[in-house]
């Protein structure tokens, strides 16, 4: 049977010059295809040694492959690698925190499968949204486990505990849910308390994070057809997306590209960046002359959310197909690994000492090259282990080793384990660590 396909229309045949921006529809950049195609265009320049900021060193791929494979075998000796997602952060320190919370509130996946999946999606959407920005001095003290967790796992666990206290629900009878009315009640004081913010535990971007949750509530209202149930039209939850997908996909099969497209269109205003085209918010898209139409698409936070929704949807009985369409995430750890291993090298060493903004051409280029090179690395690791792209998409590569490897090599190279790129991030929701 044909999987659900709700993707945007295929790209037009417009040219790649600046004038093509005028004829290409803005929705074209709100797709999985746009991410990989724009990254590939920037990569082609690096392969031709025409990149303005970096040099590409494919001879280092064998070193990177060995480094990641060794870490993968250490972390997952049985070879069963899950997807890189918010659920790995929730389980930090070998703690099954989600199942503990679900059990406390009677959300068994066996007896309340659908509601369990709704609650998982509710949590994943908020946790993914809160993962943005850099907070090197912040940590979360999880009293239940006695662990002190840095960002990003600390942020995920903080959101889980906050949700468990009913902070995002307007219904006292259903505390473990996220709904539009509950989100509207979140304020800076409650967020500071939930995230344990204080003089010795600073967390930048509190106001932006509160605004993002309010924008999420508005997005639920603006797309009520996706986030409500016929029998409860006034309760607008991210988790009701599972019910919508069951209605739209009677076969139970959903393409990953279609899931991402739905998230980008539903939550576009939540990830509102400074870039618009013909009145359409492009979110995590940035200018670069080498890209088709002049824009490089990343949609890093939306893809992170898509990866994080796959397991809850599977819990509900849906199957997300074609996972290899989603790309690697060019964050400070995955993308930083490529710099630290020398696969990608900055032409100017000042790239590593200067603080950059997201729209800087060097940063756009680094992120685009990271997306493309993660594909090359995934192919190399698959070849080393005899795996297929279906069984080992780049989403598993990131969990198998590139994110953890980025942390490991950064700690070996720099005293505090800081990444090799410094980004001025004020809590922007689309740029996680």
The total beta strand count reads: 12
Mean pLDDT: 90
Question: Could you tell me how far the N terminus lies from the C terminus, measured between alpha carbons in angstroms?
Answer: 38 Å
Amount of helix: 40-55%
Structural class: mainly alpha
- Report Rg: 21 Å
Taken as a percent bin, the fraction of beta residues is 5-15%
Q: State the shape.
A: globular
How does this structure look, described?
This protein is mainly alpha-helical and 433 residues long. It contains 16 helices and 12 strands. It has helices at residues 32-47, 61-75, 86-90, 97-104, 113-130, 153-164, 180-184, 188-194, 206-222, 224-227, 241-248, 256-266, 300-316, 334-340, 361-385, 394-413, and strands at residues 54-56, 139-142, 147-150, 253-255, 276-277, 280-281, 285-287, 295-297, 319-321, 344-346, 355-356, 422-423. Strands 1-10 form a two-stranded antiparallel ribbon. Strands 2-3 form a two-stranded antiparallel sheet. Strand 5 (276-277) and strand 6 form a beta hairpin. Helix 1 packs across helix 15 (361-385), helix 2 packs across helix 16 and helix 5 (113-130) crosses helix 6.
Summarize the helices and strands and which ones pair or pack.
Layout: H1 32-47, E1 54-56, H2 61-75, H3 86-90, H4 97-104, H5 113-130, E2 139-142, E3 147-150, H6 153-164, H7 180-184, H8 188-194, H9 206-222, H10 224-227, H11 241-248, E4 253-255, H12 256-266, E5 276-277, E6 280-281, E7 285-287, E8 295-297, H13 300-316, E9 319-321, H14 334-340, E10 344-346, E11 355-356, H15 361-385, H16 394-413, E12 422-423
Parallel strand pairs: 4-9, 11-12
Antiparallel strand pairs: 1-10, 2-3, 5-6, 7-8
Helix pairs in contact: 1-15, 2-15, 2-16, 5-6, 5-13, 12-13, 14-16
